[in-house]
């Protein structure tokens, strides 16, 4: 997933990967030898001491706070009409125009995409997919196995970044997948009022230019 640097030249976006907080695992914070069996068992269920001291746990903790915020917004969004849900896109853009940042609208935007996907595709993003979308937005790598929903995950970061008006490129490995995803996931974006483009081999320059001007453009890396 890449910000559009073809249709609208701009400064390269710096990675916003969440910086892990410093964590000390000194003897002062180690479990006491006199800890009760119940306490020890509880700690084991939560994870090994090495896991608890791992910086990764702190990074993931930030993402779970985002998931909690997204989940809290789900019930009220369910009650909105289609037109009210579609109107959220212009609402977000207006807020960004008044000086708010993508971070300010991220939880709401992710929740809107989740609800739009539920209505248009019959698919609801799982919590772990919300985390995957946040990782992509932060400019980091989200490794997922086949069948875990990479295609659906990309809609979250693509929609959020397209709100700026700069355009977003979603890159896959071949023309077939690019076309499939533009048609399939494009239903979510079009429902929310965004334009969706597709780049294919053999396209003329004017066709490519028109598709690159869309809010979200699907293409391949070949």
UniProtKB/TrEMBL annotation:
Segments forming domain Helicase ATP-binding: 131-222
Any coiled-coil regions, as ranges: none
Matching InterPro entries: Helicase_ATP-bd, P-loop_NTPase, SecA, SecA_DEAD, SecA_motor_DEAD
Transmembrane segments: none
Keyword hit for Protein transport: yes
Domain SecA family profile as annotated: residue spans: 45-222
Swiss-Prot/TrEMBL catalytic activity: ATP + H2O + chloroplast-proteinSide 1 = ADP + phosphate + chloroplast-proteinSide 2
Start and end residues of each stretch annotated as Disordered: 1-43
Molecular functions (GO terms): ATP binding; chloroplast protein-transporting ATPase activity
UniProt keyword annotations, A-Z: Protein transport, Translocation, Transport
Residue ranges, compositional bias (Basic residues): 10-21
One Pfam family it belongs to: SecA_DEAD
Keyword Protein transport included in the entry's annotation: yes
GO biological process, one term: protein import
Ranges of compositional bias, category Low complexity: 22-43
Annotated EC: 7.4.2.4
GO CC, any one term: chloroplast envelope
Record protein name field: chloroplast protein-transporting ATPase
Lineage: Eukaryota, Viridiplantae, Streptophyta, Embryophyta, Tracheophyta
